[in-house]
Design goal:
Chain A is mainly alpha-helical and about 600 residues long. Chain A contains 22 helices and six strands. Chain C has 17 helices and eight strands. The chains are: A mainly alpha (about 600), B alpha/beta (about 350), C mainly alpha (about 525).
Amino acid sequence: MRLIKNTQLRWVRDNLFSSMGSTILSLITGYMTIVAYRGTVGFILSPMRQWSAITYNMQLYMIFNYMEEESWRAWASVGVAFVLAGITLGYWNTGEKKSFNQIAGGLFKTFSTLSLLVLFSPSETEIMNNDGSRAMVEVISSNQRINFLIPIAVVALLSFLLSRYSITRVFNKTKVLLFYLGLPVALGWIIKIPTITFDAAGARIKPDLFLPVATTTTIPWTILYGALWASFFVGQFLQKKEIKSLKRTIPLSWLVLPLYLFSWLYKKPVIELNKVLMNDIPGFLIFSLIGFLIIRYITDEKFSKYRNYLATGFFLATAAILFLRIPFLIKVLTFSVVLLLLVAPSLANSKEGKRQLLIVWLVAIAVLTFLLRGSGSPTGIITPTGSFLGGFSLTWVLAIFGTYVSFPFGVLLALGRTSSLPLIRIICTGVIEIVRSVPYITWLFFASVMLTVFMPEGIEFNLIIRVLIVTAFFSGAYFAENIRGGLQSISKGQYEAANAIGMNPFQRIFLIILPQALRAVVPTLVGSVITAFKDSSLVAIIGLFDVLRIGSAVIPTQSNPVNFVGTQLDNILFIAIFYWIFCFTFSRRTMKIEKKLGLGER
Amino acid sequence: MNKKTIISLIVLALVAVACATDTAAEEVVVEEAAAQTTLEMVQERGFLKCGVSGSATAFSETQADGSITGMDADYCYAVAAAVFGDYSKVEFKSLTSAERFTSLAAGDVDVLIRNTTWTQSRDTELGNDFGPTTYFDGQQLMGRNSDGLSASSSLKDIDGLRVCTNAGTTTEKNITEGAGLVGATIELVTVEKFGEAVDKFIAGECDIVTTDGSGLVGRRAVNDALNDWAIFPATPISKEPLGPTYRSNDSQWADIINWTVYATVIADEYGVTKATVDSFDYEAAPEMGRLMGKNDGELQTAMGLSADAYYNVISQVGNYDEIYSRNLNPVGLYREGSANAGWQDGGLIYSPPAR
Amino acid sequence: MKDAPLSDKIHHHVKVQKMLTKFRGLNIKKFWRDVRFLKWSGQLIFLILLVSGFFYIFNTGVRNLEKTNLPFSWGWLGDTPGVSISEGFAPLPNSGRQMLQVGMYNMLRITLSGVVAATFIGTILGVARLSKNWIVEKASTGLLEIVRNIPLLVQMLFFQYFILTYPPLREADRGDIIAHVSAKGIAYPWPQPQEASWLFASFVILSFLVSRWIFKWRIKILEREGKDTHPFIWSLTVLGALLLVGWSGGYKAMGVIGIVSTLLSQLFEAVPAIAYQTLFAACFLLYGYRYIRKQISKSNTGELGGILSDEDYFRMAGSGVLVIVIAVLMFLPFGSRVGEFLEGDEIFYKADWGVSQYFTGIASKFDMSFSGAPYEVSYPKIVQVRDTKFTRYSKDHGKVTTVGYFATWLGVVLYTSIFISEVVRSGIMAVSKGQSEAGLSLGLRPRSLLRLVILPQAFRVMLPPMGNQYLNLAKNTSLGIAVAYPEIVAVGQTLYNQEGQTMPVFVIWMGFYSFISLTISGIINFYNRKFALVER
């Protein structure tokens, strides 16, 4: 077999050196890239860096102030997410196969790139001494370089050869992905880096030890990884059993998961049993009875003419309730009853429909009560800085909950903006334009110093809640523009067809228009989670301890017992890589989801 | 009415409901304004909410596990010990200088011990009052010996230089005013946190950095590897008396805070430390005995505290000298010869008697 | 009626409508069931609810502010803030207002130069991403992916700390330099405008217009007669020649602008203020009248035959009210201020110029007697500070970019340019392949193909998203507060910390940024409409 084919040489000539200009461009760009790469690697490996600042403070980065004894809750949160991810992967496993040759080809690409990287790394870098003079020190000796290069090159060569031999073994694509995910876990056990440890009396153990990358966390990560595999198999099993109800349950669980994690697992609410018995259980029973009555009798002929009045009456009652002081749970449940009143006539037409609607209603109330009880009770986590969220956990909460609360705002504003009533349209347009034209940091300042001024006497909000309120407005306005685009893309024929078959406007919006508009908007929704993730770094300016603030203000001021002063650049580089990994992976997934949903194609 | 309008109005109701009282806001603290005093509210809550900086070397620093140490933090612990008998019942809130007063006014914190300067405008305009000064400080500047500055330099020497400081404080105004008075033109760069100002000074972007003297000494102790930094002028360009501050509508709470500080000062006058608080001869020093609640503890109970409130403070946190030395000596700030020595040693630390 | 067959229902409906049009009013149906009444009352109720909710919040705010002894006031705009700013035209501002103006100036500096730079870099990157060269394409995609996935604030902080790693200025560096980087900033040579710079700048604009006219003229000949008329070469040569002439003294010809301005200023001063007021009021009334008449006449044609929709009523009512209000305002003190401002007599809200002074100012810049080279390159210098050991960049030589400016500018430009590159790339890709194939089959050369077929279509698609990116750039400059650049958010924060007035500062922020957004959107919309396709 020919190892190097003519086509490959031709490819090189066509793509890199096709003309004089192209050759010059290739050389210049290649040179610039290599210089940039060497500069970065030299910077990273320079002896002036203190990477132990990051490894020592990793807990600070991840959960900041969370109580040590309760940190299993943080692990459990990650674990629950992993388990759900595993079940999703398993349930929707398409059985796509990857051939051995493909895997070997992929490995070859990776390892050949790695060997190139090792080859091009710089061997020395410049440092500045205390007295201001500059000197070059060696960072990678030729011995080290050869030691790294040889195994990588060998693996690359092996995989290249294997990819040429035709081997018919095939592997499930998702299983390959999970296997790749196991590599960082394995590396965690194997790779040892210098780290700082203290003995029982608080004295520093010198010289600094070499311990596995994540000393205290390798075991939890391995357990979680195992749980991921186990749930994957469970998901596959459920797929084989063809349990249809999971098709709806799993996406709903993803939707409910962040709420559950925040209100119960991570928060550790302190539940008073009498509150549960006095408020929640009677509330649940009463509202499920109301729901049952509505579903049973709403389509009865006798009550049909009171339907509209009932709906309007309940709406007015809800509006009145806004200004009264009753528990938040009752407010939410009353509002759900209003929604039910609007939805029931169209859905609860047959016996089967009634039964299904009743089940949905009972489940919805139970979930709502459960979640609100959790978030309504005081937290059992007492931290020195007051908020049990900090670091990475804060970033996630801001990103996900920010998207949650901005979504209804966005839908509302979009519907208002395309309304046919001129007053409402003008007001909504004005709100959207004003909110969007002011930068986000100004809104954050508003939230941190001015929002409390507008609150009635005695009500105080956590700074995080205020940030979420303001994010709801801001992201909601951006969202409204995208949803409006989706709404406008629906041809008038849809409206006319819906009218022709006798749908009332409510049915038309919820069954025909919104599903189509929102389908076009789903990629923007995921994109907005990424944007919210990036924008959450701005809360560092108003005083919340997110990853950026920890890296630039908290760690570089630590002077006792370890001195990490002056490590800003290292920390910022770490934070940049951290954000980059997450955002890049997510945007890749979004592109794949977009392709799968077939958006943009007819 | 148009059905779409109904839908919109209902979704508006959803949104209003969602933001009027959000889920986690059930941790709302509804203060019944006239009925509850601050002491009652704090006792009911079970812990003290104390506003600190979190990044002020030696006054309130955040450690790797998130805990806060420093002189301000110790005074927070002292107030908690006085109110609850247990110094650990404190929740710290790290506040930037921009939001510290609004947080106090809004009720986010019960007391603000955040190396805040007591000024006339703050006393009158912001709705809060100041407790006794725990640290007499002054604004100074820091420059390098190798640039020709020394401890005997003056404001005139900064003409034409670039000065860094942090925003939103009296420091900006003081340096502008001071430079204007001696006819010096400076470029003033203001940063969000003081740490950034020190970074710029180390890197060489700024020639001078200025803030309260204690902050400068703290940073010099940590960052000055070459022993090149000089703090000048010897007489600070402004007075910065640092102490606790609290809302001005509750005199009982004000007394509690004030007397916690005075208790530590009195204990220092008598030389009662954490170690000797049990073995001290209270017969010979009746004032100390009254403070420690050795008789009926009337002085404390009249304030709403338990009789042994200040005993708890001294035994769990220490006296003024211990608090001072524990936190400020490691960075090179000593009481001897400074304004923070006791009144009998020529300083300004003085307290009214416990009678 | 409910159980009647569909045809009967339609028949009845048409009959009712016909009766309604005859009576043109609310007659047979109970008026509270009439759709128009319900719509309007619904909107009014909504408006009332909204306004009352807003007032409730506003009043709570005012009450709470009064309790903290810090009532809402604008007085601080006139007070001296007592702090100094590191960059800007007034390092020691004498009033709160001037301090805000410095902040706005700093923000606009970055926005204007950033927009130009980002467009330039973004276009290059976008074209690079479409290149056939593998390395170029992969490198630009890599750069895009890196910059896009890291938050802007992190990038700005990185640039700030990066430039702080350069050594500080030492005694050994003193002297004349061409360009220099240090922890104090970047210094580079810069053309300094001399006294003739305004004249020369306007001459340049004139030259561009002339060469554009020549370009169009040659193209017309090319299209009409098919000759090869080299439009590019002609216009470029003319441009070059004109610039050369202008540089060596031809700019004096623009002195004519100065003469015209002097005349205008005298003209404006001569007319009394009251004439302006009546003129404005009359213009507005006339315009309103014509607009309403146009609306009415528009609805008289077509099948609707005289029935006005709610939209039209609303527009007419709204415009009528607006016009009358403005006409009345013209005769109130506000109007007399406007009139006097135009006349140049009274200063308008403490601005120290009226329109005629403005023209006099212009005349002073366009004096025909100026001479010399319009621009001179000045090189930076590292000098000693008075007689100390300190060293710094000289303020009067060359141009110095401070660390804050550099970090903000580079962060914002890099971030926006990659989004612009995405816009450019999708714009060019949006032009379907059939267009280029058709062009090639017509015999067009690749370069003409690009200019005549692809770019115009791509430009149309690119314009609105590009405008969006410019808006984002303007708003992202607000992150300068994290790198100690004194733009308007940072300055505002200093002000409200010193004075305690958070609300007014926030209102100013909102007003300023809304103004910038409206301006940019307005410009983009104008160009959008100009290039829009004329559709059937």
